[in-house]
From TrEMBL:
GO biological process: L-leucine biosynthetic process
Gene responsible for this protein: leuD
Annotated protein name in UniProt: 3-isopropylmalate dehydratase small subunit
Organism: Buchnera aphidicola (Chaitophorus populeti)
Keywords: Amino-acid biosynthesis, Branched-chain amino acid biosynthesis, Leucine biosynthesis, Lyase
Gene Ontology molecular-function annotations: 3-isopropylmalate dehydratase activity
Amino acid sequence: MKKFTIHIGTIVPINIINIDTDIIIPKQFLKQTTKIGFGENLFYNWKFLDNKEKKINKNFILNNKIFKNSSILITGKNFGCGSSREHAVWALLDYGFKVIIASKFSDIFYNNAINNNLLLIRLPEKTIQKIMLMLQKKKKIKCTVNLIEKKIILLNIEYIFEINPNYRLKLLYGLDNIDLTFKYIKNIINYEKNNQPTYLKNRTLYS
């Protein structure tokens, strides 16, 4: 997996709460099992006015050329609620999003994001709404997300965020769950050696 340290990209606001996984990627697109190809159908029912002719919805922000290559999404609370489909995370990544910012995420969606190294950042709801107001007055805005220092820089204002240390480590070093486990393998072996039941004493745990 790719390392994530500092990312600079265009930020796009979708100020809607309770965006569920069916909105992110509708169920008719879940037949494939590879992680590639979902991006074109991200927010499908918002991008198009009808399913048959695929008439573009000009009012949907991601159809605006200014935000076409956005890589940072700021959105309403409870993002990713609904079903547990991992495809929602795949679609966001395949579209090109690197960071999602909200005050609250669905727990299952959050775990799916961790497993796929999509950075989710929680900020207080008041802060989210202040940023939304700022973005209404501007058009294309670049945002810096610094995972090393755990901060966001937007319009010369810094926002500090907290993140699970293991999640941060995975992103910084481009690790998956197995890689992360192996980083602690010596600690795991020592723990098991020191906590063996009596009948396993003096036996080799690992060759």
